Amino acid sequence: MDSEALNTFLTVYRSGGVSSAAKILHRSQPAISRRIALLEDELGVPLFERISGRTRLSDAGRVMVPYAERAVAAARDAEDAVRALTRSNSGPVALAVVGTLAGGGLATIMKRFAREQPDVELTLRTATSAEVSGLIRRGEATIGLRYDISRSDELDYERLFTEPLQAVCAPDHPCAGSRVARLADLRSERWIAFPEVPGRREITASHVFALFQTHGLGELNWTAVDSLTAQKRLIEAGLGIALLGRSHFADELRSSTLATIAVGDLAAHQDIVAVTRRGGFLSMASRRLLEIIRAHYTSDDITAVGRSRGKTQAAARRARARRKS
C-alpha cells in the first residue's frame, strides 16, 4: 500500500469522483480507476460505491480516510526532511490562513519572509478555522493561522495574540469616539455580522446574540454579511455597527473612516493561534516563517492599533461637529 495509491484514494474522495480526481492529478481516468481497483484488491474490500450516479465512500472507505491522511502526510514529511538535508532554505512552505487574518499584517509577514528566503516557494491558502486545521492535519499546509484553540491529538496550537473586540461605527455616529456604560445602550442599533458557517470562528451573528443574552437582553436587528471588507464599507456608510477585532480595522482607524464606541461592561476577545502538525517535520524555512509570525504578533505594529484609539476618537468628534454644523 504505497502513498501514491493512498493519495489517489483521498483525491477521489475529496473531489467527488474519478473524473475530477484525474484532472487534479493530471492522470487519465482509466489510470485513476486502475489505481483504486488495485488498492481495493489489496485490502479485499470496496472503498467506494456508486449511489444515484454519484461516487460515495463505502463503510470501509470512511474508516480508511483518517489513516490515509496520516500516511500521506507522513510521506510528505519524509520527503521534506530529506530535501532539508541538502539545502538550509529548502521549500516549499505552505501557509493556511483564515480569510479575515489575510490583511496588511500578513502581507508584512510574507514580504519579510520572501526577503530573507528568496529561494523558498511560499504558497498561501485561505479557509475557515476548521478548514485550516484540516489542511495542517492532512499535510496540505505547513503552518496555519486561525481563531481559537481546538482540541486535537494530532495538532499543536500556539496562542499568538489575544485580540480585544470593539464596537465599531461610522465616524459621524452619535456615539463615535465616546463611551456608553452598558452594552444594553446599543441594543437598538442594527448590527452587522458574519452569517453562521460551520468551522468559522469569526464573530458571527450568533456570537453577537450570545453576548447580548449574557447581559439579559433579547433579540437584535442584524444584517448578515459574508465579507469583512463589505462589512466595513456598510459601517462607514452608517448602515450598522459591528464587533470587530482591532487588527481588522486598523487601516480605517488610521484614516479616520471608522471609529469605535467604548462599552463599559463589554469584555470580549478572540485568540489568534498558530497551528502545526504534532510530530510533523518543519524545515528550517518553515521554522523561520513561524518565528517571523511570532515576532509580528508581539511587535509594536500590533499594540500600536490600540494606541491609535485616542486619535480616532478625536477625529470622530470632529466629524460629528462637521455633521451638526
Oligomer: single chain
- The tally of domains stands at 3
What is the β-strand count? 12
Tell me, rounded to a whole number, the average pLDDT. Answer: 83
The description of the largest β-sheet is: 8 strands, mixed
SSE arrangement, N to C:
HHHEEHEHEHEEEEHEHEHEEHHH
Please state roughly what percent of the residues sit in beta strands, choosing from under 5%, 5-15%, 15-25%, 25-35%, 35-45% or over 45%. 15-25%
Span between N and C termini? 77 Å
CATH superfamily of the largest domain: Periplasmic binding protein-like II
SS element count, helices: 12
How does the overall form come out from the CA principal axes? globular
CATH level-1 class of the largest domain: Alpha Beta
Could you tell me the radius of gyration in angstroms?
24 Å
What is the percent of helical residues? 40-55%
* CATH structural fold name of the largest domain: D-Maltodextrin-Binding Protein, domain 2
Q: Uncertain runs with pLDDT below 50, 5 residues or more?
A: 303-317
Which architecture name of the largest domain does CATH use?
A: 3-Layer(aba) Sandwich
Structural classification = alpha/beta
